[in-house]
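Run SMP-30/Gluconolaconase/LRE-like region-containing protein through structure prediction, thanks.
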Amino acid sequence: MLENLAFDGRGKMLLSEGTLFGDGAIRTLSPGGKTGTLVSDFTGPGGIVLNGDNILFTTGNTAMAGLSNSKNGTVESLNLDTGEQTTVAKGLTMPNGLARLANGDLLVTRNLGSDQGLIRIPAAQPHTPTSVRTDLGSANGLAASADGATVYVGNTFDSNTEIRELSASDLKGSVRTLKVAGSGATNAGDDLTVGADGNVYMALNGAGKVVRVDPATGSTCEIGSDLPLTSSVRFGSGPGWDPAALYTTSFDGSVHKLTPPKK
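Sure, done. The structure for SMP-30/Gluconolaconase/LRE-like region-containing protein is below.
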């Protein structure tokens, strides 16, 4: 089961791979299809974020952890040069989405169990994660805009599929809601990303689609279909990866490339 993806900027795609039973891993994929393992032997890998020469990734992102309120979740940091791994934060419950703000703070989401919502991990005190808000439904997909001013949070298990728009400087402030067409139960919204065009791109796990949402107008456009159990979506970055194309992961272990039509 591939949960999330990122690019290391050095020519590799990074994939968080989980299993129903047993440990997970962060796998690597080259543009030519060669696979490898960056780090293994941990449970429930979730979001991945590149931070300079390090990658940050969550662990403990399992349904059992969410439903049982287990606090075995962590955010880990792995240096791409040395392979040194350190724990940035621990005591988290089912950290799913992961985003890094301009000030270095980290955000994670939780979409199962009690206290679903958004959690902040302060850069100055990463050992004290705090709940920011619990009014976002089954919070899952998480991304910040290119300028760092806006945070987008998607949901999964609610009756309507929605993307919440928050101010990065006032996460507890007002919320703008962008609605995604279709039934929430059928869509099962998953991870999302923000493109250079400012639009939000969301993977619909249940519907097997990728949709584009324009924050300015709220309009939704389906840009990819026939993608069963799509879990994550990112624009290509780094040598060998098309920056105009979207790459997706799936719970069936596949990776797809969505190439925009020629103008």
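Helices lie at 63-68, 184-187.
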